[in-house]
Design goal:
The complex is a heterodimer.
Chain A (H helix, E strand, L loop, with lengths): L8 H7 L13 H9 L13 H13 L4 H4 L12 H6 L6 H4 L34
Helix pairs in contact in A: 2-3
Chain B lengths: L2 H15 L3 H15 L7 H9 L12 H4 L7 E2 L6 E2 L14 H16 L5 H13 L2
Antiparallel strand pairs in B: 1-2
The chains are: A mainly alpha, B mainly alpha.
């Protein structure tokens, strides 16, 4: 699940500056639309992207979005980490790890999945040894 | 001959994209001098601003919350955990080379940490510090 090759540079520059440039398939088109519409208060931060760049990012995300039925509800505001798919994939992770200073946040995919930016989320390649399978 | 003005505009456009930290600092300093006669940038004031704690954002009270106490070191976004490359030009040659990018991040981060825009004088001081710190 690598980032599609046609990802606009603005996606990496705008979104990927504060967190990993998440693969669009991790959220449904409707949830990306709601996310882009709510950037003024994006988890407590004003992450507004003005003008053509915002349009470009939004249509890229929607065009490459994941299957809503398979992902399940992402909550309000939409969070990748609340989709049924994410929760199911991470159900064996003890709660304390989400607060671990090495991880900090469920948005920090690369803390455990070193190859996350390239789409490698294999459970065999987990950085944190005790969580590796 | 009709293409000449277009070509000139194109060249100006290209020149405007890549800048040096000195030039970017000078532009802010000139803007500051327009408001306050005799203004000269100070790396020392820039450092003070970098370290100042503001009572606005619990998670990000200061620049140092994400950028660490040393601009020469890599930082980490305090909420998302994302790695941040060093701010100092000596440690990261790509810093302060794109005026639009610099202006965008001053806009975003000043608002986030200080709950207001930075003044041109503050920006000039900040760029001076990041350019000089070794």
């Amino acid at each position: 699940m690598p980032l599609p090759a046609n990802a606009p540079p603005a996606y990496q520059a705008e979104c990927g500056a504060c967190h990993m440039a998440f693969q669009p398939a991790l959220l449904s088109a409707n949830d990306w639309r709601r996310t882009m519409a709510g950037l003024k208060d994006h988890f407590g931060t004003d992450a507004t992207v003005d003008g053509p760049a915002g349009q470009e990012i939004g249509s890229f995300l929607e065009r490459n979005a994941g299957n809503a039925g398979k992902l399940g509800s992402a909550g309000e505001p939409p969070r990748i980490s609340q989709t049924a798919r994410f929760v199911r994939k991470h159900r064996e992770i003890p709660a304390k790890y989400w607060k671990d200073p090495r991880i900090k946040s469920a948005a920090n995919c690369e803390a455990c999945h070193r190859g996350a930016a390239d789409g490698n989320y294999s459970e065999h390649d987990i950085v944190i040894r005790e969580l590796r399978r | 001959m009709r293409t000449l003005p277009a070509l000139c505009l194109l060249l100006v456009g290209i020149a405007a994209q890549a800048e040096t930290p000195q030039r970017i600092g000078e532009t802010y300093a000139a803007e500051a001098a327009g408001r306050q006669a005799g203004f000269t940038p100070s790396a020392q004031r820039g450092e003070t601003l970098f370290r100042q704690r503001f009572g606005n954002n619990d998670k990000m009270p200061a620049c140092t919350s994400c950028h660490t106490d040393s601009p020469l070191s890599a930082g980490q976004h305090v909420v998302t955990g994302k790695a941040i490359r060093p701010l100092a030009v000596a440690a990261n040659g790509q810093r302060f080379s794109d005026p639009a990018k610099v202006e965008k991040w001053f806009g975003r981060n000043c608002k986030e940490v200080m709950a207001r825009d930075c003044t041109p004088a503050e920006k000039a001081d900040f760029v001076a510090y990041m350019n000089e710190v070794r």
